[in-house]
Amino acid sequence: LKRHEDYYKGPAPIETLLFNIIKDEATATIALRNGEVDLVMRSNREENLQTLEAEGFKMNTVENYAAVIKVFNAEYEPFSNPLVRKAFAHAIDYEAITQAISPSLTQPHQSMLLPWMDVYTDDIPVYEYNPEKSKALLAEAGYPDGFTFKNLGTSAQGVTELQQFEIDFLSQVGITMEMDLVDTPTFNQRRNAGEFELASRLLPAVNPDLILFSFLHPDNMVPSGFNGARYDNPEVTEKMEAARASADPEERLQLYKEVQQIVADEVPYLPVYSSNVFWPGKPEVTGVNINYLAQVNFWEVDIEE
Hints:
Elements: H1 25-33, H2 46-54, E1 58-72, H3 77-80, H4 82-91, H5 94-101, E2 106-108, H6 131-140, E3 148-154, H7 161-171, E4 176-182, H8 184-193, E5 198-203, H9 208-216, H10 234-245, H11 249-266, E6 269-281, E7 285-286, E8 302-303
Helix pairs in contact: 4-6, 9-10, 10-11
């Protein structure tokens, strides 16, 4: 890419940007270490990040880029019971898992919204790791011996390290998680149609209105929208619609706070972690400001002499 000399803000500091397409991240890491490239756009492997940070490369990053949630299908009998969903939440130690697998790239997170969003609140019910409480909730729900369910996934990805941990934690309270692995087009079709018992979704950094309406409003229930949990709470719907219509920031904040509290208590979705984005580069590369859509305005980027 060549800079536009007549850009209204003035020409960018760098005259030419050359993008090398390197599909393998390990190869891209080597290219950065060898000085073949100045910046790696999006590094997703913990071992590569640790290597580059130890060698003094600049770890350009943005935290809480997106939240990952579990989607409980309320038409599947055990998950139709909120006590079972709460038992599931208490059964898994996501803090230990994220620390074991990817402490740089992820951290445990318990909200559908992200901390930088204007209507976010942390004043919601949270589910600490407590296997004994999980067992008690299962017994109260009528499943003292646990149950078996299928987790929808892709055959291309296979059983991930995260899922292996989840299988182990759930087994300790009597819940058996079996993997339902299909090809990616089938996975997307079934997830969008709501044909699963449990699935996962990444909630991107978009307006909180869009996230909450997409996943909680009955008009967006699968297959019409993203409401894969088939969640329909008239009180939540009324509060969301009132919040969207309100021109009063304080009223909007209060209404959305109440929405988040109700939803966290009923657990139609279980937020498990939020992700971070890294663009490692040479120390002399400046102005790599990653936004919450994982984008960089290259007009701001420069290389110090």
